[in-house]
Structure formats: structure tokens, C-alpha cells
Design goal:
Nucleoside Triphosphate Pyrophosphohydrolase; globular; seven-stranded mixed sheet; alpha+beta; 146 residues; 7 strands
Amino acid sequence: MPREKSAGAVVIHKGKQIEYLLLLYPGLASKHKSYWDFPKGHIEKGESEQDTIIREIKEETGLVGLKIFPEFRKSIKYYFQKEGKTIFKTVAFYLAESKTKNVTISPEHLDYIWLSYRQALDAMKHINAKRVLKRANGYISMINLK
């Protein structure tokens, strides 16, 4: 079975409250609707997970100068269909802080939004992504980032 490895980040911005960045992904097939999720992408040969995060977030959002929290790392695993094949995918998520909310969205996404924790949780449809968000929010509280 084909496998894919990706890395992504729960990107936050601290203002009056912590806000989470979500990107609107187009559906993968006609039966799948668009969905909100975190920035992520394929790990290229020779890249570390954190290198991938920095590259992918710059490509997808234009954000640079992120502070990565390497001690927060959560992985999700799932299957999806691509060109008639079942793919097993693993995605490692880190926490990343952006000093700005000035996003320039890439053509591969439909939109972006900054939301509070509760709003982001409500906006996301995938259970794995919601679990990552819950753990990131718990970690933020634990390290007293708020």
C-alpha cells in the first residue's frame, strides 16, 4: 500500500486572545465538500519535519519568521483515496506562533480564517484535526502562553 508523510502546524497568533489559523481545502472528489484544516504538506527528500513546516506555511500563507514549539508534536494517521488507490498517510503537527495575521493565501486553498479555539473546533470537520487542536490548546494553557 502506498504511503505518504507530511508535516504541518497549528499556527497561532497572540492578540487579545489566542487565535488559530485554518485554511479552506477544496474537496478531494465531487462527493467531498471543502473543509477547514491546518497548513500542511509533503515532506520532501532531505527535509526535516520542521523544515517542511516552515516551507509549506510560507508557500501556503506567506507567513515567515514563525516560532516553532518543537516539544509539541502530535501525529495523525489516516487513509484516503487518490487515483483509485488507497493511501496510508501520516502527518506530524507542531505548534507554531506567527507575529502577524497577514496571510497571502496560495492557489491550492480556497480561503483562510483566524478563529478562537471554540470557533476553530466548530469549523473543523475531521476528528483527527479536532484532536490535534484540543491537544494544542491544552499545551498552550499548560505553558501559560495565553
